[in-house]
Amino acid sequence: MTSTLALQSKRITHIVFIALLLDILSFTIILPLLPRSLEAYKARETHDLTLLSSLLSHISLLREFIQSRSASSRFLQQGARADLVLLGGLLGSLYSLLQCIVAPWIGRAADRFGRRPVLLLCMLGNILWTVIWLYAHSFELFLGARVIAGLSEGNVQLSNTIIADVTDPATRSRGMALVGIAFAVGFTVGPSIGAYFSQLPLESTQSRNIFTYAPFAAAALFSLVLLLVETLFLFVRLPETLNYKRNSSETSAGGDSGTEDVATGSRDSAQPNAQGSKQLQRRLNLLHFTYLFFFSGMEYTLTFLTHDKFAFSNGQQGRLLGFIGILSTLLQGIWVRRHRGKSAHKDKDMVVKGMLACSAGLLCIAYCTAVKSGSTLLLWMGAVGFAVASATVVNCLNSMVSLINDVETGKRLGDFRSAGQIGRSMGPLFACSVYWLLGSRFCYLVGSAAVFAISLLFIAFVPAPTVSSSRISTKKSQ
């Protein structure tokens, strides 16, 4: 790749990183506010014949059933407060389920109409749901806003797609790691921003006040500002990248016959490998689903464990989660992006290391529940395993999917994200059931064994994507 193209690729990757960081900060602002928002909506209701009251009633019955059949849990003993937290978790699962539905369509639209227009359309949806959140005076309106949010969030997969467009196999995983860094920073800083803005006294009972009907309106307003800045930034700075490789090849080669031969060879060689590519895609999709099914479930129950076993305060839980986020960021910036080797094989190696670290971390957490002294050493060792997994597995899997071939990248990454979001929506329900009915230690032992088994299956049955000779020739011609 020539120096000019390398600089252009780097510039576009940095644009995507900045925009995605703004997007994730906006997305995570609401996370610590969900239970308190639900509590505020409940307090505003004048009767019990509402959707929110009905949902909380059913969750309360489920909680009482679990309490009658399992050991006492400090978290479940909070009663109505626990019901609100569990309903917030269900809203998170609903969001992931909606992402599962819409991700394939977003990917296909990006392949047909271009990355830039589809991304800007997603941004309009994000702005719309945040405006509705700002003025949501009832739970029903707030729920409608969250549905729009789930159907509009295409920024993550489109960011991966754009990075795949502008990077070559040797630099792909370095670019994908920036997506993971944006995630880690956003999920570390965003909730703290939300907690800060939730304390600003901008609500009023007076009808002339714009914030009358919006619980935590200051947080919603700041989230809206971030989205508006992101949209303007993307509109001004982001170019279209759908045909980036083809245009770059033509520009670099000057339109000579060598470029045409490479393109023709690519089309001819794609046919015999089509079946193998589809099989590899299906295996990676299945792996993504099963891994996130267990990982997201274990991650979701971690706050319950720290509350039940160690009686952590909100501040202590925040420090633990912040440690995971900061360590994940450092690992991606210092280790993942600098790891040498052929991209596809490096990615597979990183995925295996991340899964093994996750399995070991879950094993540490399982055994920390049996330590009578209440020592948190094993808990923090488990947090290290979570951080390593967060820094490696999903980002490197995305890179592997993008390296299967250069055709319909948006579709393949959309289907891959969809599979993962199914696992993310179902995993917490499974993990909570095991956690409360069979005990925390059994829950994390199951999670550790499952992730370890997934890593072995990954090693045995999922080969690293091979870079076709035509793509290597294209790179050399540049």
Quick overview of this protein structure:
The chain is mostly helical and 478 residues long.
For the structure shown, list the relevant keywords:
single chain; mainly alpha; 80% helix; globular; disordered C terminus
What percent of the residues sit in helical stretches (DSSP H or I)? over 70%
Overall geometric form = globular
Question: Helix and strand string, N-terminal first?
Answer: HHHHHHHHHHHHHHHHHH
**Separation, N- and C-terminal Cα atoms:** 5 Å
Low-confidence spans: pLDDT under 50, at least 5 residues? Answer: 204-211, 255-272, 468-478
Given helix and strand content, the structural type is mainly alpha
The biggest sheet amounts to: none
* Overall residue-averaged pLDDT value: 85
Q: Give me the count of strands.
A: 0
Strand content: under 5%
**What value does the Rg take, in angstroms?**
23 Å
Notes on the protein architecture:
The chain is an all-alpha fold. The protein is 80% helix and 0% strand. Helix 12 (274-310) runs parallel beside helix 16 (409-438). The protein is globular. The model is unreliable at 204-211, 255-272 and 468-478 (pLDDT under 50).
SSE map:
Elements: H1 3-28, H2 34-44, H3 51-69, H4 80-113, H5 115-135, H6 139-152, H7 155-166, H8 172-197, H9 217-237, H10 244-253, H11 257-270, H12 274-310, H13 314-336, H14 343-368, H15 377-402, H16 409-438, H17 440-461, H18 469-477
